């Protein structure tokens, strides 16, 4: 029996280890609620512009990774947001069709967008849809004082997403991108979401720590593969 317990503990520790050597994940359950919050951070082999372009390109959200729960994603008009908030339809095909006919241009960086997503969620959670408000802030490269004039100049951007409505549970947070040396960038995701039912905290930590490294790697791979699209000076002019 002791050997079996040791084997199970070893398996949980192994599965909880990040697939990215430099990744840090901190996740906690909010006491007496079904809400979870946390932060994930890693240095990626992708440029600041390529990461910003990838995370701003909301319509490619469903194709970044096969593991991504997003089946369909599109920017939509404020009028559709109001309509969906009032109706809250259960038919996911109908919601996707409404999104296709009410798509809007992407304003990122700068401005704000309403993003409709249809989600393929793991059992026992039902598939669902949600609308979130996305907005971006960018810090231009600056040197604060002469004392740090020898330090490399870096840019930073933050993309906020706030849950507005949907049959999905609440999910809000932000992505932070910070430029590093040698064409690399630090990516941080601060998140807060509702799992919908009570789960032991160790299971939540295991699930998040298992899923996020794969998602970060998928974002990195997509940004690297499409850097020519995003690294041009025109990125951000949309």
Tell me about this structure.
This protein has 238 residues and is α+β, with helices and mostly antiparallel strands. It has a single domain (22-140, 153-230), classed as Alpha-D-Glucose-1,6-Bisphosphate, Chain A, domain 4 (2-Layer Sandwich), CATH 3.30.530. Helix content is 31%, strand content 31%. It is built from six helices and eight strands; from the N terminus they run αββαβααβββββαα. It has helices spanning 2-16, 48-56, 78-87, 92-101, 201-225, 227-230, and strands at residues 24-29, 35-44, 70-76, 112-119, 128-139, 156-166, 171-179, 185-194. It has an eight-stranded antiparallel β-sheet with strand order 1-2-8-7-6-5-4-3, sandwiched between helices. A hairpin with a 5-residue loop joins β7 (171-179) and β8 (185-194). α2 (48-56) crosses α5 (201-225). The longest helix is centred in the C-terminal third of the chain and has 25 residues, at 201-225. It starts with a helix and ends in an 8-residue tail after the last helix. Mean pLDDT is 81; it is low at 1-18, 143-152 and 234-238.
Layout of secondary structure:
Blueprint lengths: L1 H15 L7 E6 L5 E10 L3 H9 L13 E7 L1 H10 L4 H10 L10 E8 L8 E12 L16 E11 L4 E9 L5 E10 L6 H25 L1 H4 L8
Antiparallel strand pairs: 1-2, 2-8, 3-4, 4-5, 5-6, 6-7, 7-8
Helix pairs in contact: 2-5
The structural domain count equals 1
Number of strands: 8
Number of helical elements? 6
Architecture (CATH level 2) name? 2-Layer Sandwich
The fraction of residues in strands falls at 25-35%
């Amino acid at each position: 029996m002791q050997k079996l317990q040791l084997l199970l503990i070893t398996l949980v520790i192994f599965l909880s280890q990040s697939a990215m050597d430099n990744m840090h994940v901190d996740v906690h359950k909010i006491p007496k609620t079904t809400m979870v919050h946390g932060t994930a951070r890693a240095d990626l082999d992708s440029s600041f512009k390529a990461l910003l372009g990838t995370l701003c390109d909301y319509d490619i959200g469903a194709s970044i990774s096969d593991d991504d729960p997003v089946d369909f994603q599109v920017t939509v008009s404020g009028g559709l947001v109001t309509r969906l908030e009032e109706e809250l339809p259960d038919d996911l095909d109908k919601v996707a069709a409404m999104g296709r006919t009410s798509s809007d241009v992407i304003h990122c960086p700068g401005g704000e967008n309403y993003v409709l997503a249809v989600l393929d969620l793991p059992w026992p959670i039902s598939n669902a849809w949600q609308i979130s408000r996305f907005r971006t802030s960018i810090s231009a490269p600056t040197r604060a004082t002469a004392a740090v004039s020898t330090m490399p100049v870096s840019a930073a951007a933050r993309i906020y997403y706030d849950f507005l409505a949907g049959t999905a549970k609440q999910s809000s947070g932000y992505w932070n991108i910070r430029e590093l040396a040698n064409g690399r960038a630090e990516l941080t995701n601060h998140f807060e979401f509702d799992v919908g039912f009570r789960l032991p905290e160790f299971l939540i930590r295991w699930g998040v720590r298992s899923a996020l490294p794969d998602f970060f790697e998928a974002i990195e791979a997509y940004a690297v593969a499409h850097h020519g699209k995003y690294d041009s000076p025109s990125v951000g002019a949309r």
